[in-house]
Design a protein that fits this description.
Blueprint (H helix, E strand, L loop, with lengths): L1 H40 L1 H15 L4 H6 L7 H7 L9 H10 L12 E4 L9 E4 L1 H22 L10 E5 L6 E2 L5 E3 L1 H8 L1 H10 L4 H4 L4 H13 L4 E8 H24 L10 H10 L4 H12 L5 H5 L5 E5 L8 H8 L4 E2 L2 E3 L4 E4 L10 E3 L5 E6 L11 E2 L8 E7 L7 E13 L2 E9 L4 E3 L2 E3 L1 H11 L9 E9 L6 E8 L10 H14 L1 H8 L7 E4 L4 H11 L16 H9 L4
Parallel strand pairs: 1-5, 3-6, 6-7, 7-8, 20-21
Antiparallel strand pairs: 1-2, 4-5, 9-10, 10-11, 11-16, 12-13, 12-14, 14-15, 15-16, 17-18, 19-20
C-alpha cells in the first residue's frame, strides 16, 4: 500500500512539475518578445554594446590577438582594422580545431557543436556553435512562440489540450577527430539537451523518440500517425515549407496503412525503427477503430483541404516560405485550405537574423534582431567591388537590396553571409527585410545577373499557357557552356501529364518576356546576342524527388535540404539531364 501511495504521489508531483514548467515557458516567451521589441527601439545602442561585448569576450583568443581586437574602441575602428571575410578565411583554423580540439584559437568558450551547413550553393561548411550563440537564437524562438500564441491562439496558456505537430528528424551526430559533435543544428538541439527533449515532449504530439528516428520517411510517418491521434492539435511547425509538404505527401501516399495502424493499435512493420523505439511507440498505441473509420471517411473524400478536416482546431502552419521555398506555398495551400501559413523567422547556422513580428501581413518580412549578431550590409551595387563598403543596421534604405554581413559571439568577424535581402521598412529602429536569394544561386552570364525570384516569376507566368491545372512541381537551372553564346537551361517538372510533348517555343517566349520586363540588362544583352536563348527542358514525374534522394544518399541532411536552383556539379547536371523528356 505504501508503495502504491508513493507512486501516486510521484505521479501527482510529476504532473505539477510539468504544469509549472509549461507556465515558466509561457512567461519566458512573453519576456523574450518584450525584450526583443525593446531592442528594436534601441537598436543602435544594442548593436554597439554587443560588438564591445564580443570583442571583450574573445580578447584572449589567438585570432583576436592577431588583429589586436581587444584594443578596438569603436565600430568605425573595427571596420577599418578587420577586413570583410568569407568561410575560406576560417576554413584552416576550423579544420585545425576539429582535429585538435583547441577551440581557444578562435573562441573563448568550448564549441558544443560544429553545425554542418546544407551545402545548397556550395561545399558544406562547419560553423562553430557555442552556448552563447545558442542562447541568442533561443530568445528569438521564444519571441516567435509568444507572437504565434497571441495572434493565432488568442494567448492560450500552455496546456495538454493545446499541442502542436513539430516536423523534425534529428540525425545521429558525428564527431570530429577531437571529439567535438558535428551535425545539423536541429540534431544538435534535440540530441544534446535533456531539458529541450522534455520541453518538446510537453508541447508536441509526438513522443521524443520519434524525433530521434534517423530514417526521414519513418520519422515523418510516425509524426503523422501520432498527430492524427491528437484531436486538439492547434498548429504545425517545421523549418521549411518543403518539410511540411513532405509529411503531407507521406500521409497522402500511406494513409491506408496509417489508419490500419490506428485501427489495430499496431506500428507498421515496414518502418525503419530500432527495437527500443518500436516497443516504446507500440506501448503508446491502443486499438482505435472509431478514430480509424472517421479518418478513412475524410481521406476517401480526397486531400484538398484535408488539414482543417482532420484537425478542426488547427490555427496556423509555421514554416519558412520565402526565397526559393515560395514555390511550395501553393502546393501547401492545396492541403491547408484557409489555414494561414506563418513564415515565422529567418535564421542561419552562422547567426539568427530576424523574426516576423507582424504575421498579419501577406508578404513575410523579418525584423532584424539586434541582439543576435552585429550586423552590417553591403549595398547591392558594391557586392562585386574589391573592397566593398558597408552600412549599419539603421542606415538601410527602404526598397534597396543588400548582402548580409555578421559578427557573432562564436568567432566569425565581418562574415559575408552571401544572403541578399531587401529592406521593406522599419520596426522602430530595426529594419524589416525580405530574403531574396543566395549569392551562389544567382545566374550570371557575362555580368548579367538573374535572381531565382526572377526565374520563379517567369516560369510561374509561362506555365499558365498550359492551363490553370498546370502547376510547377519543382525546377532548377544550369548554364550551357557547350555552345556560344552561353545560355541558360531551365529544367522543369509540372503537374500536368502530356500525352504528346508540347511545343516549348511559346513557353520560352513567354518566359523571356517576363525576364525582359524584370531585367533590362538581360533584354539588352539578348538583343546583342551576348547571351543565347534559354532552353526549356521538361523532366519526368518525380525527377526532383529522385534528385533529392540522391543528394541525401550522398550526405546532405534531409531536414536541411533545399533544392538548389543553379546546378554547378557535373554529376548533378548529368542526373537531371538524364530525366529530360525533350
Amino acid at each position: 500500500m505504501n508503495l502504491k501511495i508513493r507512486e501516486q504521489a510521484q505521479e501527482i508531483f510529476n504532473k505539477i512539475s510539468e504544469i509549472f514548467l509549461l507556465y515558466l515557458l509561457q512567461v519566458a516567451a512573453k519576456r523574450s518578445l518584450k525584450s526583443l521589441q525593446k531592442d528594436t527601439v534601441n537598436a543602435v545602442s544594442v548593436q554597439q554594446k554587443l560588438l564591445r561585448n564580443i570583442l571583450k569576450l574573445q580578447k584572449d583568443t589567438e585570432y583576436s590577438k592577431k588583429y589586436n581586437l581587444a584594443a578596438i574602441g569603436s565600430v568605425a575602428e573595427f571596420q577599418r582594422i578587420h577586413p570583410l571575410t568569407t568561410y575560406e578565411n576560417y576554413r584552416e583554423i576550423i579544420e585545425d580545431i576539429a582535429k585538435s580540439g583547441n577551440f581557444s584559437q578562435l573562441v573563448a568558450e568550448p564549441i558544443i557543436l560544429f553545425q554542418e551547413t546544407s551545402g545548397t550553393t556550395g561545399k558544406s561548411k562547419l560553423i562553430p556553435r557555442t552556448k552563447r550563440l545558442l542562447s541568442t537564437s533561443q530568445k528569438s524562438f521564444q519571441a516567435i512562440n509568444a507572437i504565434a500564441r497571441s495572434y493565432y491562439l488568442n494567448g492560450k496558456a500552455y496546456a495538454k489540450n493545446s499541442l502542436g505537430l513539430a516536423l523534425a528528424s534529428a540525425q545521429p551526430l558525428k564527431s570530429t577527430p577531437s571529439g567535438i559533435p558535428r551535425g545539423s543544428g536541429t540534431s544538435g538541439g534535440i540530441r544534446q539537451s535533456k531539458l529541450f527533449q522534455k520541453i518538446v515532449s510537453l508541447n508536441f504530439s509526438s513522443p521524443i523518440s520519434i524525433f530521434l528516428i534517423p530514417d526521414y520517411r519513418s520519422a515523418y510517418y510516425c509524426h503523422m500517425l501520432f498527430a492524427l491521434l491528437e484531436p486538439k492539435l492547434t498548429y504545425i511547425t517545421a523549418n521549411f515549407a518543403s518539410n511540411v509538404l513532405d509529411a503531407l505527401q507521406i500521409l497522402e501516399r500511406e494513409w491506408s496503412q496509417i489508419i490500419n495502424d490506428i485501427y489495430h493499435g499496431q506500428i507498421n512493420s515496414n518502418l525503419e525503427l530500432d527495437t527500443a523505439t518500436r516497443n516504446e511507440l507500440q506501448n503508446r498505441l491502443k486499438p482505435n477503430p472509431e478514430k480509424s473509420n472517421t479518418l478513412r471517411t475524410e481521406f476517401e473524400k480526397g486531400f484538398e483541404g484535408i488539414i482543417p478536416r482532420i484537425w478542426p482546431q488547427l490555427s496556423n502552419i509555421q514554416c519558412i516560405i520565402t526565397g526559393s521555398l515560395q514555390l511550395y506555398k501553393e502546393s501547401l495551400k492545396f492541403y491547408a485550405g484557409e489555414i494561414p501559413i506563418y513564415s515565422h523567422g529567418y535564421g542561419a547556422s552562422e547567426a539568427w537574423i530576424g523574426c516576423n513580428l507582424e504575421p498579419q501581413k501577406d508578404s513575410p518580412a523579418y525584423v532584424i534582431t539586434p541582439h543576435s549578431a552585429f550586423f552590417e550590409f553591403i549595398p547591392i551595387s558594391q557586392i562585386d567591388a574589391e573592397k566593398p563598403t558597408t552600412v549599419d543596421l539603421t542606415s538601410l534604405e527602404v526598397g534597396e537590396s543588400y548582402e548580409l554581413v555578421v559578427t557573432t559571439v562564436a568567432g566569425l568577424y565581418r562574415y559575408r553571409m552571401g544572403d541578399i535581402v531587401k529592406c521593406v521598412g522599419y520596426y522602430n529602429q530595426s529594419p524589416m527585410i525580405e530574403f531574396l536569394y543566395r549569392q551562389g544561386s544567382l545566374l550570371n552570364i557575362s555580368g548579367v545577373k538573374i535572381s531565382e525570384n526572377e526565374i520563379f516569376a517567369a516560369i510561374t507566368e509561362a506555365c499558365k499557357i498550359w492551363g490553370d491545372d498546370c502547376k510547377i512541381i519543382d525546377y532548377t537551372t544550369s548554364i550551357d557552356v557547350s555552345s556560344f553564346p552561353l545560355s541558360y537551361i531551365i529544367y522543369l517538372e509540372v503537374s500536368k501529364i502530356f500525352t504528346i510533348l508540347p511545343d516549348l517555343t511559346s513557353f520560352q517566349d513567354k518566359f523571356e518576356q517576363i525576364i525582359y520586363d524584370l531585367n533590362v540588362l538581360y533584354l539588352n544583352t539578348r538583343k546583342a546576342n551576348i547571351i543565347g536563348a534559354p532552353e526549356i527542358k521538361l523532366v519526368e514525374r518525380d525527377s526532383f524527388k529522385m534528385f533529392k534522394n540522391q543528394m541525401i544518399s550522398q550526405g546532405t541532411s534531409e531536414a536541411q535540404f533545399k533544392m538548389p536552383r543553379l546546378l554547378k556539379n557535373v554529376e548533378q547536371i548529368n542526373f537531371i539531364e538524364s530525366k529530360s523528356l525533350n
